[in-house]
Amino acid sequence: MTALAQAQIANTTAVEGDHRVKGRRITPYLLLIPGLLWLVMFFVVPMVQLAIVSIESKFPGYPGYYYLDWNVFNYANALSEFWPQLLRSFLFAGLATIMAFLIGYPLAYAMAFKAGRWRNVMMICVVAPFFTSFILRTIAWRQILADEGPIASTLNALHLLPGGHITETWVAVVAGLTYNFLPFMTLPIYSSLERVDPKVIEAGGDLYANGLTTFRRVTLPMSMPGVLAGTLMTFIPAAGDYVNADLLGSDIDTKMVGNVIESQFFRVPGGFPTAAALSFTLMAIILLMLFAYTRRFGTEELL
Amino acid sequence: MSSRPAPTDPTVRALVSMVQSGLTRRRMLGLGGGAAAAALLAACAPPTPPAAGKTDVVLPKDLSATDKVINWANWTAYLDVDDATKTHPTLEAFQKATGITVNYSEDIDDNNTYFNKIAPQLREKQAIGRDLFVFTDWMANRVLREGLAQPLDLIQMPHAPNLLPSLREVSFDPGRRYSLPWQGGFGGIGYNKNKLGRDLKNVSDLWAPDLKGKVVVLSEFRDTAGLIMQANGVDISGSFTKAQVQTAFEEVSKHIADGSIRRVKGNSYLEDLKSGNAIAGIVWSGDLATLKAETEDDSWTFVLPESGGTIWTDNMMIPITSAHRSNTMKLMDYYYQPEVAAQVAAYVNYICPVLGAQEELAKTDATTAANPFIFPTDTFLTEQKVQAFRALTSDEDADYSTLWSKVLGE
């Protein structure tokens, strides 16, 4: 009897154990469902749709309607026609990334090591612009840079402004991009600098490195993850941005690929396939650049 | 493995790991394969003509009685404003009288941009959250051709017969079964007389050296290129050729390139005139009156060039998916009462389409009532060589829009 009872008990425990293991196996997947659904609904489905549109042709005689005919020439046509704007996007985004790095790194450095009790105030100053809409901030820049605004009128009085105005130039567009994406550069750098143990920097001094060498050999390498994250988070959205070029740029040589996509989607009847093809080209180029960039900077060490 | 920490941002971490894993290519191939299979199935069938302009559309249920709301999308500076309270007096009065809440939004900056934003949803018969929109003749034509507006129930609109006889018959909407004009206007030249110190008479005066970089023009090519074509002696209401349009476009391109034209924009060109970035441009008639009021500067002047100006009408229509059509028709009818129309006209200074409004306005403001830009007579239109840009075929429309986008560097 006892043996039987024991066997029964053992049996139940085994079954219960099975349940527990199964439960544990399923739970992570259950937790994934909301995220996966989100991705499928708002990423995969639109991407497939966009991919299909990019190989469609306009329906003759019915503006705004398209039919699928596997027109891969959309890509070739879009590229041959709009390569200047595409190239300009990467140029402007690259310049803005460099500018944001040059401004953002010292800022993050000061916040992490020198700010003391001002650290929180500085942090708020970096984040505060986010409380206003992106478009409003850019329109505000139009006001700041306007002909009768302080900057342009000062420069004009000193005869330092060749065209007579700042808005409607590439300088204004790059400045706008730099400003709008600066926090994306500053915050990741700050978060990796913040975790650098000051003792490590002291150790650099103890080993007879001067300030510059310590920075170059110790601080900078330790902040590289932040720099990598910051450059990606600045460059990628800046390359696809069209608001800055629209509000601060001109109609001749500052239009970026985002403006072309916007115009093909919203202004040119029958422009959907071109716009879709350009969107995919932009995405593909960014992925390729990302691939090369992460390879080049040895990120296998990062993860 | 060194001790370098991973990027903290989850997006970047995901991006980095995605690139490293090489999963991207496989995943993308898989994705492409699925899409390709679906597309292949679709491609086998010959293209069937789209269901544009089909008449058997079922209108959505009218919720007007229970849901006392109207969502109105209109252009900027297009409704009377009380400067003190920043409200719209005529609209306030309507809301008080009917108990219907009107959400008025200045959504429309440009016909194309707004139409293309809402058209995909309307074609799928999805709600766009608007019960009334206002489009210029040629775009109203496109809206009706695609069957994206609801028929009006004229029996519910006792004041609609106040429509000016000259506007009753339009090619795109015979008998006005789907649309009612909101306001009309002129395309011409606007400038600040004080800052400029002289008068402008012709389009070519805009390219004067001292105006370099101080000129804005409209992104509506029917007005901008239209005025230039008129200056070139082209009859824009008749049969012009593509070459004549191209000549005008090239002229705009040239003046953008040489720095004469500062910006080519929709209604937002007003901001540049306000901020002083520009002091002259190709503009719409009523906007300058609004600008006068907003900048408290009476030296803003609107003229029709000696070679002629353009004229157009903006039309109110109810989107096909609106569920508040009775409410909306009440609102349209309300604005066709002469005294209400007079109130709007006195503020917006555009062409008033309502019979009797001029007489009504003359009682209180004789000067405005005599303004030919608000109540133009036939003689005025002929003398000033005012023309409407001819309706383009859809092929011409697509062709010229593409060329125009090139002018704008897009």
Outline the structure in words:
- The complex is a heterodimer of chains A (303) and B (410).
- In chain A, strands 1-2 form a two-stranded antiparallel sheet.
- In chain A, helix 2 (73-114) packs antiparallel against helix 8 (211-240).
- Chain A has helices spanning 2-53, 73-114, 119-127, 134-145, 150-157, 170-194, 198-206, 211-240, 243-248, 257-266, 272-296, and strands spanning 56-58, 66-68.
- Chain A is built from eleven helices and two strands.
- The model of chain A has no long low-confidence stretch (mean pLDDT 88).
- In chain A, a hairpin with a 7-residue loop joins strand 1 and strand 2.
- Chain A folds into two domains: 2-53; 74-301, MetI-like fold (Orthogonal Bundle), CATH 1.10.3720.
- With 410 residues, chain B is α/β, with parallel strands linked by helices.
- Chain B has two domains: 69-184 and 312-374, 3-Layer(aba) Sandwich (D-Maltodextrin-Binding Protein, domain 2); 185-311 and 389-407, Periplasmic binding protein-like II (D-Maltodextrin-Binding Protein, domain 2), CATH 3.40.190.
- Chain B has helices spanning 10-21, 23-44, 89-98, 111-123, 137-145, 193-196, 221-231, 242-257, 269-275, 285-295, 325-334, 338-348, 357-364, 366-369, 378-383, 394-407, and strands spanning 69-75, 101-108, 132-136, 180-192, 215-218, 261-265, 280-284, 300-303, 310-317.
- In chain B, strands 1, 2, 3, 4, 5, 6, 7, 8 and 9 form a nine-stranded mixed beta sheet that branches.
- In chain B, strand 1, helix 3 and strand 2 (101-108) form a beta-alpha-beta unit.
- The interface between A and B is large, with 69 and 62 residues.
